[in-house]
Design brief:
- By secondary structure, the protein is α/β, with parallel strands linked by helices.
- It folds into two domains: 177 residues, 3-Layer(aba) Sandwich (Peroxisomal Thiolase, Chain A, domain 1), CATH 3.40.47.10; 147 residues, Peroxisomal Thiolase, Chain A, domain 1.
- Helices cover 32% and strands 23% of the residues.
- It contains ten helices and 14 strands.
- The protein has a ten-stranded mixed beta sheet with strand order 5-4-6-7-1-8-14-13-11-12, with helices on both faces.
- Strand 11, helix 8 and strand 12 form a beta-alpha-beta unit.
- About 3% of the residues have low confidence.
- It comes from Kibdelosporangium aridum.
- GO terms for molecular function: 3-oxoacyl-[acyl-carrier-protein] synthase activity.
- Pfam families: ACP_syn_III.
- InterPro entries: ACP_syn_III_N, Thiolase-like.
- This is 3-oxoacyl-ACP synthase.
Length: 337
């Protein structure tokens, strides 16, 4: 029996030209060697001009571009789309929901829209929801993952004295990815076999906090972003192993039958720790964080975009995303059709 969900096409969007580590070092006087050793990202794209501080792209801009590309590749018109799901940790505003701004930009009207606010696992959470929405009345959906870090780039200060800005500049990035999901089998599509989406680590302290401020909060001394890098480095590989084992069990696959691994896309040494923890042999890893930057919920769609060019009929893949803010493990099993 054919599965109920198929990835028909993908689309991606990046703002402007890539910004390499040397360009950041020249602009802000930061140390390239130490940043590369700690973060490991070679280049990234920003939705802001680093020289002028002017915002060049909104989340709506990038999300609409990625969706438009995915729709064009699937030969779809706006009237063909039955629902739209967005996963992001950085919407343009609390209201209106960015997913509705994207739909409006694309000319998609009279459809169900959903916006999930989540960190690294948001893309697979959105995919999970989209798979559940497919039915006899909802045959085609758009799934989007996108993030921008504009709100946390303080460009008029010395980054040596503002640690988070330096980390954002070297480690993070902006972008959007999308996929067309259909209930009917399309030649060349990727079948979604099972999706794992579980909140875990009950009572464990969050590994990451990103705060949103209102007018009454401006005088408070809280940092907008906090990360426990040690906890992330320790817990993400373990949760990735759990996610791999659980999603393979749900699908009825053996680990040895997997041809491709799309691991969690976190900067620094975490990807290598994940690979060591999983202990996979003869598996092709598909990663992009070193060249795209940590664009959050966009990255799983960039990985899917790369997978579409490689996976053959009956080949199998597993994608894993771990959310360190309140420890969510997500994974999906995929098969070439």
């Amino acid at each position: 029996m054919s599965p109920d969900a198929h990835i028909v096409s993908t689309g991606t969007a990046l703002p402007g030209e890539p910004v390499d580590n040397e360009a950041i070092a020249r602009r802000f006087g930061t140390d390239v060697a130490s940043a590369e050793a700690f973060i490991g990202t070679r280049q990234r794209h920003f939705a802001v001009d680093l020289n002028t501080g002017q915002v060049t792209h909104t989340l709506t801009d990038l999300g609409a571009q990625a969706c438009a590309q995915a729709m064009a590749r699937a030969d779809l018109e706006p009237r063909d789309v039955d629902f739209l799901v967005l996963g992001t940790s950085s919407p343009d505003a609390l209201v209106p929901a960015t997913v509705n701004l994207i739909a409006d930009r694309l000319g998609i009207d009279q459809v169900s829209t959903y916006q999930l606010q989540s960190g690294c696992a948001g893309a697979l959470q959105a995919l999970d929801l989209a798979c559940r929405l497919l039915d006899e009345e909802h045959l085609i959906g758009l799934v989007v993952g996108a993030d921008v870090c504009v709100k946390h780039l303080v460009l008029d200060r010395n980054t040596n004295s503002v640690g988070r800005t330096g980390h954002v500049l070297f480690g993070d990035g902006d972008g959007a990815g999308a996929a067309v999901l259909a209930s009917e089998l399309v030649p060349g599509s990727i079948a979604v076999r099972r999706v794992l989406n579980r909140f875990s680590e009950l009572s464990r302290t969050p590994g990451q906090v990103v705060r949103w401020f209102g007018a009454a909060d401006l005088a408070r001394p809280e940092q907008p972003v906090e990360q426990d890098h040690k906890a992330i480095a320790q817990r993400v590989p373990l949760l990735a192993r759990q996610a791999m084992r659980e999603v393979l069990g749900m699908t009825g696959w053996y680990q040895a039958s997997v041809s491709y691994l799309l691991p969690p896309q976190l900067p620094g040494r975490v990807p290598q720790h994940v690979a060591n923890e999983l202990g996979l042999a003869d598996v092709t890893e598909i990663s992009c964080v070193a060249d795209v930057g940590n664009a959050g919920n966009a990255l799983p769609f960039f990985q899917l975009d790369l997978l579409r060019d490689r996976i053959l009929a009956e080949e199998r893949a597993v994608a894993i995303a771990i959310e360190p803010s309140k420890w969510i493990k997500a994974a999906v099993t995929l098969e070439g059709m």
